[in-house]
Queue: 4 jobs
Job 1
Amino acid sequence: MDKNLKKRETMHRLCAKGLEVFHEKGYYNTNLDDILKDLSLSKGAFYHHFKSKEDYFIAIVQNLVQQKVYALLVEPLNTHENPLPVILDSIEKALEPGKSNEIAYGFMLNDFITEFSKRNEEIATYLRDILKVWEVNLVSILKRGKVDGYIARHVDCEGAASYIIASYLGMRTLLAESTNRQLKYNYVQQLKLYFNAIEERRVVA
């Protein structure tokens, strides 16, 4: 096998398994030996790719969590249509159960932010920056929606973006602890009502 291809394959295996174990046990309760044993890799092979456990975790966030969150919640916002249905659709898809959504990345991100807060500010800041990018893009598309006449002029776009993010993370957490699909339905219906409340009322001649 080509050396570069083999290196990429090893990196992918390490990141995928690491994400699974770090989320299941928590970063600080995870021993690297457990991950390496499961993958039949030596410590020498690990340190060939990563400088430390912290470097390893950051690579996982960059290669898996960040990309997935961006794909689900940021990239769909690149539209010039009415932003409210676009935002709603992206959130609905991001709340799909784990099997169809690969892994609940949004929920994992929230979990990791909680774990690293006050314990490792560098990593916590890096994780929060992923949410910050989503927030910046939400504010931008909401402001454009106001200019284009889709969203009422009185709406506080920064406040609306904060509410959307907080409600999504809260629902992601609830869904991770429950198999009740009614929870998601109820949440989406309430989000629709909120969007309806901030939508510009167009006068029909």
Job 2
Amino acid sequence: MDEVWRKLSEPFPPGEVQWRIEALSRDKKRALVVPYVDARTVLDRLDRVVGPEGWHDAYEVLADGERVVRDERGERRERLVEVKCRLTLLGVTKEDVGEGDSLKAAFSDALKRAAVKFGVGRYLYRLEKQWVEYDAEKNRFTPPKLPESEEVLEEEKPEAHRLIDQLLERLKEKGLGREAAKIITKYGGYGKTPEETRRLYGELRALYKG
């Protein structure tokens, strides 16, 4: 239990990370790309960390309609589906809403967004978007090189997170790893806001002091 959060939030091997185009330069020779992982990769992470029996998901379709898209090709309508995912790990539930141009895409997006609240792939949101050379005729680009996992963990982790990690190690040494893991899971890792991070640290300190 005391390793659950750490394992959920570990960076993925570079081969499992994909890149998608977010924008093109005006001359269409460069693309702004962002990293992501697909839903199957998230499912594999959940199975590997808590086991297939340690989690379950439920979905609700919130909307299935159309939206107007305006770009250089003019104005057009495309399908817009919104889905809410309720993801439960070890008795703790987080939820988020995803969207897409099909039910499949919306379900996948909702799952990934809910999993981020448990730390899965959250580090990807902190990585900088990158401009790369783009071949418009072939619709291809060369994916950027990701930093090594150790570099990601060291460079992206704020001081508050490192302090929490140190406290977790002390709690583990005192045999309180299971209780600490429950607190970590409740906050979805280090907390989504500075205030949550402070409350998390306070609860861990209280546990340590007894």
Job 3
Amino acid sequence: MIDLLETLLDQDPWIILTVAGLVVFCECALLVGMVMPGETVAVLAGAAAALGRTSLVTVLLVVLASAIIGDNVGYAVGRRVGPRLHRRVSNPGRRKRLAGAEARLRLRGGPAVFVGRWTPFVRSVMPSLAGISGMPYGKFLAWDLLGAGSWAAGSVLAGYAAGKSYEQVVTWFGTVGAVLLCLVAFGVVVAWLWRRRTARATAAAAESEPADA
């Protein structure tokens, strides 16, 4: 896939921008679990700008707009279609990650939308999951603007800074997503243990009150 995408660097500006916009948009707008190389294309588009193939400002605007519009379409599809989207994911590994994303969304809400934008696969399902869960649109939009904005700027600018060395940047972004996912998972476990401990302490205190009276 990366070899095919590399041909973007030799294309006309309108082709670079069109491919980048469509791939970033479709990653979150079409189907739950449809993994597309949105991050790779965003980095490549930034590298193309560094090589003088197109304008950096234009690439930033196209990738940012495509990410936000794609996420909002995914959210709308989740609100309309609902749980039927889950049946589109047949891979066991992806179904497991989908269940994990749902759990984080229920527990963390908005921050899960932000982290999901930086996490491979989760990026393609989080908007629709937010719609399925009934998250208020205003809340989703605020966190999505933060996540999509930082992701788009980070991906494009990293590709621009790397130039022809963009492959290492693509690998680095995958590592960042994995680290963020681990941090969120750790936070979920800590929060669950804390709530469980607090509930037990409350229950023990309630049981001891009659005896003290």
Job 4
Amino acid sequence: MRKKQFCSHSCAASYNNRGRIKHDENKICPRCGKPKHKDSEMCRSCWEELNGIGNKTLGYYTSGQKYLSSKCQEIRTNARRVLESSEREKVCQYCHNHEFDAILEVHHLKGILEFDEDTLIKEINNENNLVWLCPNHHIMLEKGLISLE
């Protein structure tokens, strides 16, 4: 069988892509109607809602693990995402000083490992269980030197 010859890669691409259908509906999420990546089945927020970390249990991350810090890191990263996407002002909840806004940390009011293993991550990382703290006040709170009440 003889292959077609083209004058350039551009001509070859034009010829080979002639029959491909280009639909704009491929860029719309079928669940919510928002824009999505052309190769994805649904938008990021719908995918997260169905398959993301929020629907997994704490036990999924902790059971059988010798060292929990790396497994809990994904939960902490998700907690930060939850707070960043919330309407809450990004300021230390203890000192209310905007000087440290660039380096604020997320603190769980009820600690991650204080929950049962069958608790969903979206419950652990509920906005009501999370606060922004500057690094100094975060460590002081963890050591029991200050309190948020």
